[in-house]
Amino acid sequence: MVVLGAGALATSLAVLTLAPGISAASSHREAPLIAGDPRADNTDVYAFTSPNRDDTVTLVANWIPFEEPNGGPNFYAFADDARYHIKIDNTGDGRADVTYTWRFKNKIRDAADQFLYNTGPVTSLNDPDLNFRQVYDLTVTDRGRTRTLLHNAPVAPSRTGEASMPDYGALRGMAVRKAPGGAKAFAGQAEDPFFADLRVFDLLYGGDLSKRGQDTLAGYNVNSVALQIPKKHLALRGSTTRNPVIGVWSTTERRGAGVTDSRSKTHTDWRQVSRLGNPLVNEVVVPLKYKDAFNTISPNQDRTVQPVVDKVYDPILPKLIEKVYGIPAPATPRNDLAEIYLTGICKACGPIKADLNAHQLNKDANRRKIVPAEELRLNMAVPPTGEPQRLGVLAGDLAGFPNGRRLADDVVDISLQAVEGAAQSGELVPALAEGDKVDTNEVPFGNGFPYLALPHTKHVNSGTGEGVRQSALKPANAASIGGVGALLLGTGMFRLRRRRATR
After folding, report:
1. Which helix (H) or strand (E) holds 282?
2. Residue 435 CB contacts under 8 Å (≥ 6 apart), including other chains
3. Structure pTM?
4. Is the confidence at residue 494, as pLDDT, over 50?
């Protein structure tokens, strides 16, 4: 069992308690400085066993929140002066053991006499009518050695419309590339897979729960990178049998000034400006004063941030819910959330008597070096579920959040109940049983890698205020949520609760 100091546990928990936040997007515009740099702004991270290749894990990371379709003439591109990473911790020390890195380059056919993104219908990624293109190099750093997996691989372009790209699905397929070692890679635009009613920030739906149910993210796109990697390449010592648990997060790096000191112009080294593991951490738990700094640190430092630690054991969100709706905030300190979000879940780790996704379950891990850290943890030994449940572990589906995160996991509803103490009481909070009333994404996800839906082309901002977002409203399903809750509570597994993303 890992012995956690009060400060270390609190810090990590602080970061993670954020996660059990209320409905919001995962990390869209979550801190003051990164809100002004959308191409470096991580929005969501997903990690799950591939449903149609169960010997692999699919990793997805998204950037550039709220991409409006028809946002020309320049549309949306990855930054060519940044480094994008997905990082894997398989030892539990809060440091990256395996790092996948994307570097993007712009290619413009005619910059002198054209302003158009494309000059005619585009039918291939090398089409002469595609005036602006991006390519990327993908590298992997493992045990200090860096190898190039792909060189000048094509990026799926922004979807400019039906006239410009009559078969965008075919273009998407051309951007899926095989990589060495049985891997697949993708980079390009996709529909934003996060679903939630973000009006929660209007003081929790204006104090009127009947106004929930609008998917604020419906109709918007993001830029995505995705990998499908054999599990042996991620596991400690290559053994998924002995060491099935990994921690996952994404970061963005830029050269020059750090996000906490915009006055400094002399730096030439790479500096981390954005970070994301579990959704909602930087949004809901970290006070405004420390949000930018949180984006610069590594998970192994989480336990040292005392001001954030303080807000973990005594979180802000339950107090706000109590003030607005009169639902009593759970007693503090919130040790229940610490295990779920900072250490992972195991029988020896804390109050939840289940072995799920703690690094302690890795037989070859050095127990003395395992630290509490905010990471999206996945037990790769848990097989995919034939009929996935949107409430994940809460519904008895151990392949879902908080054991990793699948595209369709409803992290908002799961997290809302968690922050309200359902893991402590063993009972759902009836007044909040319907969550945000946004239960699914507005369009279905794909059946094969990269699983993301194709980008939207219809405008979001219709003159009537309805448009795409209105069409995406989902009916409430309180009965099914309650039934699922009862099922999991009855089995004693409900305690594995988790929080959702913020925008």
Report:
1. helix 281-284
2. 23, 212, 410, 412, 413, 416, 417, 481
3. 0.83
4. no
DSSP for 377-433?
Answer: EEETTSPPPSS--TTGGGGT-TTSTTSSB-TT--HHHHHHHHHTTHHHHSS--GGGT
Residue 463 near residue 323 (C-beta atoms within 8 A): no
Long-range contact pairs involving 32-36 (C-beta distance under 8 Å, separation at least 24): 32/288, 32/291, 32/292, 33/259, 33/260, 33/262, 33/273, 33/292, 33/295, 34/259, 34/273, 34/274, 34/292, 34/295
pLDDT tier at 34, thresholds 50, 70, 90: low
How far is residue 114's CA from residue 117's CA, in Å, rounded to a whole number? 8
Chain mean position to CA 63: 10
Per residue in 350-371, pLDDT tens? 777 789 999 999 999 999 999 9
CB-CB contact of 266 with 282 (8 Å): no
Give yes or no for residue 389 having a pLDDT over 70: yes
Q: What is the pLDDT of residue 431?
A: 80
The residue that leads in pLDDT, 249 or 20, is: 249
- The neighbour count for residue 315, using CB atoms within 10 Å, is 25
In angstroms, the CA 123 to CA 44 distance is 30
Amino acid at 370: I
Burial class (CB in 10 A: 0-12, 13-18, 19+), 265: exposed
Model pLDDT, residue 68: 92
Q: Tell me if residue 335 falls in helix, strand or coil.
A: helix
CA pair distance 107, 111, nearest whole angstrom: 10
Tokens of 499: 């929080």
Contacts by residues 70-75 (CB-CB < 8 Å, ≥ 24 positions apart): 70/160, 70/161, 70/457, 70/459, 71/158, 72/117, 72/160, 73/115, 73/116, 73/117, 74/117, 74/132, 75/117, 75/132, 75/157, 75/158, 75/160
What does the block give as tokens for 349? Answer: 């780790």
Distance CA 284, CA 272 (A): 21
pLDDT tens per residue, range 444-473: 999 999 999 999 999 887 654 444 444 443
Cα angle: 277, vertex 377, 58; to 5 degrees: 80
The alpha carbon of 486 is separated from its chain's Cα centroid by a whole number of angstroms, namely 28
Q: Can you tell me the distance from the alpha carbon of 313 to that of 139, in angstroms, rounded to the nearest whole number?
A: 39
**Which residues, listed in sequence order, are joined to residue 247 by a DSSP beta bridge?**
89, 377
The per-residue pLDDT for 2 is 32
**9 φψ region: left (φ > 0), alpha (ψ -120 to 50), beta (else):** alpha
Token pair in block for residue 381: 């030994």
More confident residue, 412 or 165: 165
List Cα–Cα distances, 297 to 28, 445, 471, in angstroms: 18, 33, 40
